[in-house]
Automatic annotation (TrEMBL):
Its cofactor is Zn(2+). Converts 2,5-diamino-6-(ribosylamino)-4(3h)-pyrimidinone 5'-phosphate into 5-amino-6-(ribosylamino)-2,4(1h,3h)-pyrimidinedione 5'-phosphate. The lineage of its organism: Bacteria, Bacillati, Actinomycetota, Actinomycetes, Micrococcales. Gene3D superfamilies: Cytidine Deaminase, domain 2, Dihydrofolate Reductase, subunit A. Its EC number is 3.5.4.26, 1.1.1.193. Keywords: Hydrolase, Metal-binding, Multifunctional enzyme, NADP, Oxidoreductase, Riboflavin biosynthesis, Zinc. It catalyses: 5-amino-6-(5-phospho-D-ribitylamino)uracil + NADP(+) = 5-amino-6-(5-phospho-D-ribosylamino)uracil + NADPH + H(+); 2,5-diamino-6-hydroxy-4-(5-phosphoribosylamino)-pyrimidine + H2O + H(+) = 5-amino-6-(5-phospho-D-ribosylamino)uracil + NH4(+). Residues 352-379 are annotated as: Disordered. In the C-terminal section; belongs to the HTP reductase family. In the N-terminal section; belongs to the cytidine and deoxycytidylate deaminase family. Pathway: Cofactor biosynthesis; riboflavin biosynthesis; 5-amino-6-(D-ribitylamino)uracil from GTP: step 2/4; Cofactor biosynthesis; riboflavin biosynthesis; 5-amino-6-(D-ribitylamino)uracil from GTP: step 3/4. Residues 13-139 form the CMP/dCMP-type deaminase domain. This is Riboflavin biosynthesis protein RibD.
Amino acid sequence: MTTTTPHATGFTVAEEHAMAAALRAAATGVRGANPLVGAALVDRDGRLVAVGHHRGAGTDHAEVDVLHRAAAAGATPERIAAATMVVTLEPCNHTGRTGACTEAILAAGVRSVVHAIGDPHRAAAGGAHRLRAAGVEVRDGLLGDAARDLNRRWLTAVGTRPFVTVKVAQSLDGGIAAADGTSRWITGPAARADGHRLRALADAVLVSTGTVLADDPALTARRPDGSLGDRQPRRAVMGLRPVPADAAIRGHDDRFRHLPTRDPAEALAGLYADGVRHVLIDGSPRLSAAFARAGLIDELVVYQAPVLLGGRPAFPDLGLATLDDALRFVPDEAGGGAATRFGPDTRLRFVPARRGGPTGSDAHPATDPVDDTVDTTKG
């Protein structure tokens, strides 16, 4: 069988290889409000023309990236138009920070598209219909299970709530503050700078009223020199106690939101209604524990310093009685790998283990109120 001969599934060997390449590229992207998406172009002879992927909110989508890469590699417009575009997710039909991918595909003259899975996001869906209406051949289902697994947590959240990242800075023994409450600084400057980069990627940073009252954080995204970064997240606090009028989190703009609730799901619903699609919980231990109990952590980022501290744990009051109740996570190799060194510190990235799988459950009900008293980020 040649690379251009269709299988019984209706896809060629070349298309399967191209989709596998697109999935590998997708996995190098950034988790958050948007899915991990890769794309590839394969010509009529079964040769791979180019591979591209999405690099995070506001950057070119995978379809546009692969078209640019093909042109940069010297592919003529005619070769690009005659190629099949293979994409890990149905091309979007929505104009947001970037244009609709369907229009970029049509503008390039591509007449054949294969995608792994459909887009469940109402605002972006309909790409396959738009392309078919314009005369493009569209096929779906190639390596769909692998594509769904890559974006399992995003597919769970999309269209209903923001994607939730929890960030923790801790010692080797899981401490986020000493017994006397001191916590500046557990990690070094390189790890802290990466933490601020993470803040800048999020739509909103969320803490509890207890953290605000105890530490008065500003929750800004800053450069290593202390200046404000170009992109700033919204600043949100949840809890029933009032936020002081002079609290640093209020800032001097309209990007502050107080969510008068102790229910994580209710807080996420309020943020989603405000247009927030990616929430970062940064340095609020009881809040992080509440989201963990509710099964509402989509990504866990741990900055671990090579020190023994004791003191206060990163996830207090999880309410777990036995090892069988443990909330289990698995290393996340997307975005450059599960482990990255920043000077003496190590950043570890995890996603919840599949529910009911051999490594345990990833969701438990939330029962305890949220009321933090420690913030490891101090602004």
